[in-house]
Write a structure and sequence with these properties.
By secondary structure, the protein is mainly beta. Helix content is 6%, strand content 40%. It has 2 helices and 13 strands. The chain has a 6-stranded antiparallel beta sheet, with no helix packed on it. A 5-stranded antiparallel beta sheet has the order 9-8-11-6-13, with no helix packed on it. A two-stranded antiparallel ribbon has the order 3-4. The longest helix is centred in the N-terminal third of the chain and has 6 residues. The chain starts with a strand and ends in a 7-residue tail after the last helix.
């Protein structure tokens, strides 16, 4: 595995180091020791999957509030998505900044998202599936979000949203 920083502190791209032969390929997608050596959380008590039949589906921007903030390891297992992270950590030098990474099932890359960041994605092709390792169990009373088009962040999405939940569309403007 190769772990590469992004423009937001603690947000990391995780690329596999595939070994290929005439049978196909083999690659490690997660290693607790490698994550620990890189200062990353390596305990994921919950995993989730999201299947999205339509191109342009937008999900997010979600996070879980204290005292149960979520670390996420996100991988696109079918199709392709633009994965977006907004830094909501008030003490961060990149507070209210965002970054994005294209996750592609063929590339087998993933994105590590630290606690204190909002996360969302948009599908770039039909039939995209996203698999999440979650660093905290879901606690609905602590589930929060910020709006995908909030001017406080000015996220640039590649497509107009074709599918968006009412909840995600109606988060109020962010108030720092």
């Amino acid at each position: 595995m190769k772990i590469t920083p992004t423009t937001l502190p603690g947000v990391m791209i995780v690329n596999v180091d595939a070994i290929a032969d005439d049978r196909g390929l083999f690659a490690r997608t997660f290693c607790a020791d490698t994550f620990s050596k890189n200062g990353l959380i390596n305990y994921f008590p919950q995993c989730n999957v999201s299947w999205n039949p339509h191109r342009g589906t937008l999900r997010g921007m979600h996070y879980q509030a204290e005292p149960y903030p979520e670390v996420k390891l996100v991988r696109c297992t079918r199709g392709r998505i633009l994965d977006v992270v907004v830094d909501l950590r008030a003490d961060s030098p990149t507070y209210l900044k965002w970054t994005s990474v294209e996750l592609d099932a063929d590339q087998r890359n993933a994105l590590y998202i630290p606690a204190g960041c909002a996360h969302g994605f948009q599908t770039l092709v039909r039939d995209s599936e996203v698999f999440y390792h979650m660093g905290e169990a879901y606690k609905p009373e602590f589930a929060r979000g910020v709006r995908w088009d909030d001017p406080a962040f000015a996220i640039v999405w590649p497509l107009p949203p074709e599918r968006l939940s009412d909840r995600d569309a109606n988060y109020p403007d962010f108030q720092p």
